Amino acid sequence: MDTNLAYLRESLSNHVDNHEICQRIYNRLEQHSYENEEAFVNGLDDGEAEILNLILEKEIGYARQEEDEQRIAQLSGVYELLI
Prior knowledge:
Blueprint: H1 3-12, H2 20-31, H3 37-42, H4 46-65, H5 69-82
């Protein structure tokens, strides 16, 4: 699995109990082998992309607060494809 997608899957695990769409995206990451984050993002519908955008904003903000540069870089790779 692409490293950026592994970080994304980990971040999504924090939200699967609260959002059905997050659970669906998480399951997709678990069940499919994506070549890269672009292939993954291209498979999202508009609602999934919107929720993922919100989740990533929150997760990147948290990573900044914790000064976790690696997590910021990995999550930003997916986030930039969404916007």
